[in-house]
Structures are given as C-alpha cells and as structure tokens.
C-alpha cells in the first residue's frame, strides 16, 4: 500500500501506531473481536496501539518512529484505529 504525505491527511487524524494490519489478519481480527468492534464486508487497514501525531510549528515537524497513518475512526482510545492509510512524514 502506498503512502500519502501528512499534509494530505484530510480524511481523519494523523496517528503514530506500533503496527498496522489488515482487519482480516487473524491477530487484528482477534483484537477487534475482543473489543466488540465489527468490521464487515470491508478489509480495512487498522492501526494498533496508536497515539496522535502532533505537527510542531515553524521549523519543526512531526515525529513517529513506528508506522505513521491517517485514520478515519480513532474512537477506541488508541488501542485500535480503523480505516487507516499509511502516510509519510
């Protein structure tokens, strides 16, 4: 999956995740199941153990040592984020 620049993250919040995976991946599916999250009919990219990326003002930049992603659904307190797209910082 190709990545988009962080400036193009207009579909959701920029997040830094420890990992990302397809929702159909057995470990991701198990985590989604434990949290009671149902993702049916769509194999979306999910971010696992995420925190927001805060772009620093003039002269600075965003920092993420793991997998930077842009996610449309971040309502699960960073444990898992749904509808993610890899981004470049």
Automatic annotation (TrEMBL):
Molecular function in Gene Ontology: structural constituent of cell wall
Listed transmembrane segments: none
SMART domains assigned: HYDRO (SM00075)
Keywords, sorted A to Z: Cell wall, Disulfide bond, Secreted, Signal
Location of the region described as Disordered in the Swiss-Prot/TrEMBL record: 1-24
Matching PROSITE patterns: HYDROPHOBIN
GO CC annotations, alphabetized: fungal-type cell wall
InterPro entries registered for this protein in UniProt: Class_I_Hydrophobin (IPR001338), Class_I_Hydrophobin_CS (IPR019778)
Subcellular localization, as worded in the UniProt entry: Secreted, Cell wall
Biased composition (Polar residues): 1-17
Family the entry assigns: Belongs to the fungal hydrophobin family.
Protein name, UniProt field: Hydrophobin
Organism for this UniProt entry: Sphaerobolus stellatus (strain SS14)
């Amino acid at each position: 999956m190709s990545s988009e620049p962080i400036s193009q993250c207009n579909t959701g919040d920029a997040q830094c995740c420890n990992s990302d995976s397809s929702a159909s991946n057995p470990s991701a599916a198990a985590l989604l199941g434990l949290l009671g999250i149902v993702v049916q009919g769509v194999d979306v990219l999910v971010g696992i153990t995420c925190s927001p990326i805060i772009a620093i003002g003039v002269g600075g930049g965003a920092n993420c040592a793991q997998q930077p992603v842009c996610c449309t659904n971040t309502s699960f307190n960073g444990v898992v984020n749904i509808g993610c797209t890899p981004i470049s910082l």
